[in-house]
Amino acid sequence: MKLAILCALLLVVVLLLTMFYLLFQPGRTYQSSQPSLRSRQAAVGRAVLEAARNDTSTALMVRAAVQAAPEEDRTLASDLITALPRR
């Protein structure tokens, strides 16, 4: 009788430990998640603008790229582009 009670108690403890392990373990998607597309695009934009601030030829290429962009993008980038150095 004692052995059956001890086995049942051990089984309950093992099940509880397993449940807590599975409950609080970070999943694979959490561990291997990548930054969002928006944050990656923002990082590229910051790098390009920093390069354009430091180099006039890069600034000219960025200006040309923005002028070739759709109207909405040109409007959004207008204040950033005006801050870039001219020739």
Give a verbal description of the structure:
This protein has 87 residues and is mostly helical. Helices cover 79% and strands 0% of the residues. The chain is built from five helices and no strands. The protein has helices spanning 2-24, 28-31, 37-54, 56-67, 71-82. α4 packs antiparallel against α5. The longest helix has 23 residues, at 2-24. The protein starts with a helix and ends in a 5-residue tail after the last helix. The relative contact order is 0.07.
Q: Can you give keywords for this protein?
A:
mainly alpha, 87 residues, 79% helix, 0% strand
Low-confidence stretches: none
The shape, in one word, is rod-shaped
Q: Major beta sheet, specifics?
A: none
Secondary structure: number of strands:
0
Q: In whole angstroms, how far apart are the ends?
A: 92 Å
Structure described in brief:
This protein is mainly alpha-helical and 87 residues long.
List the helices and strands and how they pair.
Layout: H1 2-24, H2 28-31, H3 37-54, H4 56-67, H5 71-82
Helix pairs in contact: 3-4, 4-5
